[in-house]
């Protein structure tokens, strides 16, 4: 490779001689202090600006801090997801019925059949948690349509999010951390959280009163965040989506929850899949003007227009260790043409925190800092 | 490369070698290069080099800031990620153009009285910058592929994956992307400090060789 810079000092007649050197009369002149200070100040300012942008300084809430707090609440489980750590991979197809084409040009709504790679899980950060006792259940999906577009979504059994903002979520996660003295969350911090984020009362009421079903299969999963749907005619609507189970509701009593095996939901899923595929209807709810589209803690009125856009059919499951869903980040902002994000701040924060959770577990798996229970490796 | 010989003969041999990719040394070229009064080497970077430099400088700084900010930000990640990916590919294209231009048009020589270590640092840091301009977007692209992510550009356009999905490749490339970004930022700062040192302390024409064209006074 030519290195012209190291070429011998060829004569360059129009090259100006350095005035500083010329003025020095042969001896080395003292470097001027002011320019050196200026250079130092510019370089340091840029370094400081980068440190601020990276969140190393400035005291802003960062995605790393949110991930750290979630991690602290769930315990140390390298190689697993930081939240919703316990679950199984599932696969099947989504069949659009064409009804959603008036709302969105996304190919998935028009395509006869789109393959689905999903994950059923429970809330919480422990990969060994007793499944029957988990108040929150989740369904994540990756749909890849034949135009190469991808739609990823991570949904939950709750009908609305606990708080309106990432700051609220962080406050809740911090208030839920066990106090080292008692081993339980500090009641004072919990009270402080409830006072600062009153919207959480609605969620706590749901957690207390919502009926418990006895399967992942008969649980509804709600996208909670609103998204923009772009139609072929250029119109735009805010939409929330839910997957509504076709399997009939069957209750799970408090006694059953206490006595159930830790892998209760997985065992139930395997038994049901052995009988045949499981189905959910995709229900799109369209916002009316004035509905809170950027606040996932606020449900929309019952009367809103709903469209059944198709059916999800799951016919197989695989353990997450070594399964196809293990190395998928179900980032809710990976969206196909025809769907785009709203300005919901929780959506942005979920995307940011999922990225860190993904990076951490992928590094742990890749660099051997985990156990076979996470990776599925035969060791 | 040749050493401290500064005879016309050395110039005859070294200059055509530097521009070898464009044309073989002809008798005429050697004669021009060998005549000191005929500007054997340019005093300034050519217009394409200057345009690319000043176009890429803000883009690369923006890229570094957006890169760290989008990993930290709880609120601004979506638009930052949407900017980071296509901008990275744009920088890759510009960097390849710039490399081609650099290989065809040797830059002006550094001042003869520049201490040897500084001249070597200049050469090494320039090639490191070029390497990182090209490697960083490629690593980012390959990393997203290995992570199973779609490599989204603007308007739902996806780039094809560079690698199959693989947890080890992803972890290695993701780690490299982060550390090489820090190395790039440090090298950019060093480059900036050195450029300003030439402009304000040495005042030796090195800064103006990139800042201005040949005809303008220094």
For the structure shown, list the relevant keywords:
heterodimer; A: 379 residues; alpha+beta; Catalase HpII,  Chain A, domain 1; ten-stranded antiparallel beta sheet; 10 helices; 10 strands; 30% helix; globular; disordered N terminus; B: 218 residues; mainly alpha; Fumarate Reductase Cytochrome B subunit; two-stranded antiparallel sheet
String of helices and strands of chain B: HHHHHEEHH
Please tally the β strands of chain B and state the result: 2
Topology of chain A as a string of helices (H) and strands (E): HHHEEEEHHHEEEHHEEEHH
Q: Which structural class best describes the helix and strand composition of chain A?
A: alpha+beta
Tell me the name of the CATH class of the largest domain in chain B. Answer: Mainly Alpha
- The helicity of chain B comes to 55-70%
Query: Mind telling me the C-alpha Rg of chain A?
Result: 27 Å
CATH architecture of one domain in chain A, by name, is Beta Barrel
What's the Cα radius of gyration of chain B? 21 Å
The stretches of 5 or more residues of chain A where confidence is low (pLDDT under 50) are 1-26
> Percent of residues of chain A in beta strands?
15-25%
Per CATH, what is the topology of one domain in chain A?
Catalase HpII,  Chain A, domain 1
CATH fold-level label of the largest domain in chain B: Fumarate Reductase Cytochrome B subunit
Name the shape of chain B in a single word: elongated
> Kindly state the mean pLDDT of chain A as a whole number?
91
General form of chain A:
globular
What is the distance, rounded to the nearest whole angstrom, between the alpha carbons of the first and last residues of chain A?
48 Å
User: For the record, what is the CATH homologous superfamily label of the largest domain in chain B?
Assistant: Transmembrane di-heme cytochromes, Chain C
Q: Trace the largest sheet of chain B across and list its strands.
A: 1-2
Major beta sheet summary of chain A: 10 strands, antiparallel
Family (chain B): Belongs to the cytochrome b561 family.
Pfam families (chain B): Ni_hydr_CYTB
Subcellular location (chain B): Cell membrane
Organism (chain B): Tahibacter harae
């Amino acid at each position: 490779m030519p290195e012209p810079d190291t070429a011998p000092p060829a004569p360059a007649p129009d090259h100006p001689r350095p005035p500083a050197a010329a003025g020095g009369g042969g001896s080395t002149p003292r470097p001027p202090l002011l320019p050196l200070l200026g250079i130092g100040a510019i370089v340091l300012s840029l370094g400081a600006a980068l440190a601020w942008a990276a969140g190393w300084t400035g005291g802003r809430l960062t995605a790393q801090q949110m991930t750290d707090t979630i991690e602290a609440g769930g315990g140390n489980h390298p190689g697993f997801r930081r939240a919703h750590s316990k679950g199984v991979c599932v696969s099947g197809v989504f069949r659009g019925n064409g009804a959603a084409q008036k709302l969105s040009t996304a190919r998935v709504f028009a395509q006869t059949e789109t393959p689905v790679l999903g994950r059923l899980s429970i809330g919480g950060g422990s990969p060994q948690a007793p499944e029957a006792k988990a108040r929150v259940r989740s369904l994540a999906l990756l749909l890849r349509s034949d135009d190469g577009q991808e739609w990823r979504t991570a949904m939950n059994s709750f009908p609305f999010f606990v708080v309106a903002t990432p700051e609220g979520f962080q406050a809740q996660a911090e208030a839920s951390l066990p106090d080292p003295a008692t081993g339980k969350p500090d009641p004072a911090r919990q009270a402080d959280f409830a006072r600062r984020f009153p919207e959480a009362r609605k969620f706590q009421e749901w957690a207390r009163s919502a009926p418990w079903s006895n399967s992942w299969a008969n649980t509804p999963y709600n996208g909670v965040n609103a998204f923009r749907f772009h139609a072929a005619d250029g119109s735009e609507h805010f939409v929330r989506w839910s997957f509504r189970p076709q399997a009939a509701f069957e209750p799970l009593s408090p006694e059953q929850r206490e006595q159930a095996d830790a892998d209760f939901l997985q065992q139930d899923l395997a038994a049901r899949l052995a009988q045949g595929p499981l189905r959910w209807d995709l229900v799109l709810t369209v916002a009316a003007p004035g509905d809170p589209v950027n606040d996932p803690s606020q449900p929309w009125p019952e009367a809103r227009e709903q469209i059944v856009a198709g059916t999800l059919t799951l016919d197989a499951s695989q353990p997450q260790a070594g399964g196809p869903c293990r190395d998928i980040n179900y980032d809710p902002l990976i969206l196909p043409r025809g769907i785009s994000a709203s300005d919901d701040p929780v959506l942005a924060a979920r995307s940011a925190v999922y990225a860190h959770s993904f990076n951490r577990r992928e590094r742990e798996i890749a660099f051997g800092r985990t156990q076979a229970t996470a990776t599925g490796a035969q060791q | 490369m040749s050493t401290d010989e500064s005879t016309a003969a050395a110039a005859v041999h070294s200059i055509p070698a530097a521009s070898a990719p464009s044309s073989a040394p002809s008798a005429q070229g050697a004669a021009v290069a060998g005549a000191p009064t005929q500007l054997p080497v340019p005093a300034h970077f050519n217009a394409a080099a200057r345009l690319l430099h000043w176009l890429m400088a803000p883009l690369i700084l923006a890229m570094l800031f957006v890169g760290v900010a989008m990993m930290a930000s709880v609120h601004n990640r979506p638009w930052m990620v949407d900017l980071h990916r296509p901008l990275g590919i744009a920088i890759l294209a510009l960097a390849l153009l710039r490399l081609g231009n650099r290989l065809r048009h040797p830059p002006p020589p550094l001042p003869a009285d520049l201490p040897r270590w500084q001249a070597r640092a200049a050469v090494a840091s320039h090639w490191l910058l070029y390497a990182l301009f090209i490697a960083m977007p490629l690593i980012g692209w390959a990393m997203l592929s290995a992570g199973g992510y779609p490599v989204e550009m603007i308007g739902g356009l996806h780039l094809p994956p560079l690698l199959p999905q693989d947890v080890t490749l992803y972890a290695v490339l993701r780690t490299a992307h982060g550390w090489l970004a820090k190395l790039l930022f440090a090298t950019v700062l060093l480059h900036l400090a050195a450029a300003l040192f030439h402009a304000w302390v040495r005042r030796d024409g090195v800064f103006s060789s990139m800042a201005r064209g040949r005809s303008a006074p220094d």
